[in-house]
Amino acid sequence: MPETIQLKIHHVSIIVADTAKSLAFYSGVLGLKTCERPNLPFPGAWMQLGVQQLHLIELPNPDQGRIAPEHGGLDRHTAFLVNDFQAARRKLEQQGIKYTLSRSGRPALFCRDPDGNAVELIQDPDVAQ
User: Fold this and answer.
1) What average pLDDT does range 8-23 have in this prediction?
2) Long-range contacts formed by 2-9: CB under 8 A, 24+ apart
3) Cα angle for residues 58, 51, 125 (degrees, 5° grid)
4) pTM (two decimals)
5) How many CB atoms lie within 10 A of CB 121?
6) Which one of 16, 63, 96, 122 is least enclosed by Cβ atoms within 10 Å?
7) Is 90 helix (H, G, I), strand (E, B) or coil?
8) Which class for 15: exposed (0-12), middle (13-18), buried (19 or more C-beta within 10 A)?
9) Is 11 strand, coil or helix?
10) Does an H or E element contain 23, and which?
């Protein structure tokens, strides 16, 4: 019988053009907290989400010029559970950040960070509204 390997997500990395601008979105709008990052030979930031992390890597964008679909659900995206979907939606509206609602019918939406990376916000089913 083959051995079963169990996997868990440790971190997701996102390429950004300007770490400060991206931190304004991920920390300022979404509320993620930065955590310690080793001294690496390129700019960036690490943020903690429970036991997982989001790594912002400031490098030239390999997708420069790529035409992304308007709806982030049809694109590569990073999905986050939120404890209050309506509050998250209001925060995006207050910041003038465009979004589209999920086509799945669940309380979820898709927006884009300052570099055009698609981000999904989903109501955490374990948190009562």
Assistant:
1) 95
2) 9/52
3) 105
4) 0.91
5) 21
6) 96
7) helix
8) middle
9) strand
10) helix 19-23
Three-state SS at 27: helix
In this structure, what are the phi and psi dihedrals at residue 106, rounded to the nearest 5 degrees? -85, 160
- 50 burial type by CB count under 10 A (0-12 exposed, 13-18 middle, 19+ buried): exposed
**Which tokens belong to 98?**
């465009």
Tens of pLDDT, residues 104-122:
999 999 999 999 999 999 9
pLDDT tens digits for range 79-94: 999 999 999 999 999 9
Q: Strand 108-112 relative to strand 52-58: parallel, antiparallel, unpaired?
A: unpaired
The closest of 75, 63, 60, 56 to 11, measured between CA atoms, is 56
Residue 48: phi and psi, rounded to 5, are -100, 135
Burial string for 93-112 (b: 16+ CB within 10 Å, else e) reads eeeeeebbebeeeebbbbbb
